[in-house]
Amino acid sequence: MSASGRAAAGAPATSVLLAAAGAGWEAEALERLSRGGPSVVVTKRCVDLTDLLGTAAAGTAAVAVVSPALPGLDADSLASLRRSGLGVVAVASAPEMLDGDAERMRRIGADHVLSDGELAVLADTVRAAAAATATGPAGGPHHAAHAHGGPDGSDGSGERGAPAPAGAAGRVLAVWGPAGAPGRTTVAVGLAGELARAGREVLLVDADAYGGSVAQHLGVLDEVSGLLAAARAANAGQLDAARLAAVARSVGPGLRVLTGLPRPDRWQEVRQAAFEEVLSQATRLAAHVVLDLGFSLEREPGDPFGGGPQRNLMTLAGLERADEILVVGAADPVGLARLARGLVELGEVLRRPRPRVVVNRTRSSLGWSDQEIRGMVEGFGRPLAVHFLPEDRAAADRALMAGHSLAECRDSALRTAVREVADAVLGDTGGSRPARGLRRRRAGRAR
What we know:
An eight-stranded mixed beta sheet has the order 8-9-7-10-6-11-12-13, sandwiched between helices. Helix content is about 40%, strand content about 15%. Helix 14 (about 335-350) links the parallel strand 11 and strand 12 (about 355-360). It is an alpha/beta fold. The protein has two domains: about 5-135, 3-Layer(aba) Sandwich (Rossmann fold); about 170-425, 3-Layer(aba) Sandwich (Rossmann fold).
């Protein structure tokens, strides 16, 4: 009976793409799938990763069966398969299982990993992957809590794998602000320093795709990017908390820094799946993860299947993942106008945002009281609180020239105000996440 005849005999067939990269198990896999009954049909044998991704984007398949040895297969390519609606089943040879490829495939997002000695359950595993993809949300490297082995959840050795013990996840604090250099990095570095001084383990991540300067603020002069190193490891399925700690720089007791892009034009090297894995491992490494984010919230137009890189993905992913958002704006008329627009845009991009607003560089010469500025801010959003940092150029310059956070410098009006922000953040650890899920927004939309 033909494939179409078998599919017509019952429920719609599960269409499978096979990309075995010439593995020795390919012929047996084809035979096993052909015996899988009318509910499994091999739609195409793909010659390489490009062929696999292109065919998947056409929407003609439900599951990809892949070899870990397929050249170019990484977290980003598996995320592309997920965006196309496919589940992923990996089949590894015995040497590959011993070399750790099975664990790598789980890390980068495979639904199931079988050894080449478990092909008898391949058809059942394919059906399970298709069913899980149809009923659950597509995700990144950890979307299915590392669904493993065969359809019964076995770990590849015939025994059901026990879940990893759940540790206390770190808290993500996103520092964002509109264009115009309102002081995002000054606040992010100052906040991280105060949290570390309070005895917390802190990881400060420079995730500004337009011109990050955390390294310069803290006197880190080498050009090795911790962010790029972490993203490459995540994309290869090799990132864990220990590896992340190794590529981060220790700049003081309790404070590590993941330095940013060495040049803004290298933003394309940080893909979404990899960055999300970096954030996941960061919360395992530190009690507080402080993100210094770029200003733009625009989702750039890409290919119709959403597979192209997005320059603002770190900002959008960081805001979505954040447990608390700090929005920084300058106190002058231009800065306040940008802050007001930024709060409106943030409300359009995020669901029910409740940011903590930090108004920077306040001074009496502007002629506005804190109460007047607070009233304006509250008219454009519903912040958790509004904090004010005074214009204190001398203190800011001392910290910058010394390559230190404000917490490492002598007391000043600016440091006192930043410490009050940190105290407020520490006192609000039981709050709910302010933002879960991003709304899609067209690029270039006028305001």
